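User: structure tokens for this one?
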Amino acid sequence: MHLLDLLPRERIFAPLEADSFRDAMALLVRSLADQGAIREPGAMGRLLTETRLRDVVIVGDRVALPHLRTDAVDRVVVAIGVASRPLDAHELGLDLAPDIVVLILAPPEAATLYLQTVAALARLFRNEGVVERLGRARSPDEILALPELRGLKIQPRLTVRDIMMHRVFSVSPDAPVRDAVDLMVRHRLRALPVVGEKREVLGIVSEWDIMRALLPHIPRAGVPTGPEEFANTMINKDVEQFPVVSEGKLTGFLTRGDIIRKIFGR
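Assistant:
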């Protein structure tokens, strides 16, 4: 299968007039709904407002691939938007401003094709020349004329290289714990590789490791159930989050990351 089997001309938008990353996604969704590619666009819109950094593949400094599995579509749907100016993406916690957005939607049962499509596009956009020419395009026809795009195949199988993160954050073994926490909080990471002077991997530090090391130093809240009790249970039971209930009703979740951020004042 080729990418163009999933990407007809009417799903390519250049230029895409938007100021923020979320605005760009909303415009793509609205256009796909108008074309009949999305059922229940209202529900799809609400889902997009909840998009997290883990649902977006970032390639370089210019390309963002939001990808979601949803019952709002009955097949894999791909749409490309090339913005006329860099998009504000601070809502997602991104410290860059992409100008190319590729939205990938898939029904829950299309897991394999969905992952293959995300991986194929991530590979394509690691080619800086392709990104540069795509960013200059000002019409769907100019984008469709790119030979790399026209010839892109969806591979029959995935490799670890296809799905791993290529923008890697790491810490040195002598770095202060606060530096590791700052990186994990800023980029929504649950773990960081620890590397030596030659970039050799020495280990991994995770939220679990940080909580275990800091447990004796977590101040007691002075109430029957405080941060120390939650942290201790998370470590001993290997639990990532707790539901928070008030008067028998669910009001939220408390995660390992929440406790770590509270300790460090982040």
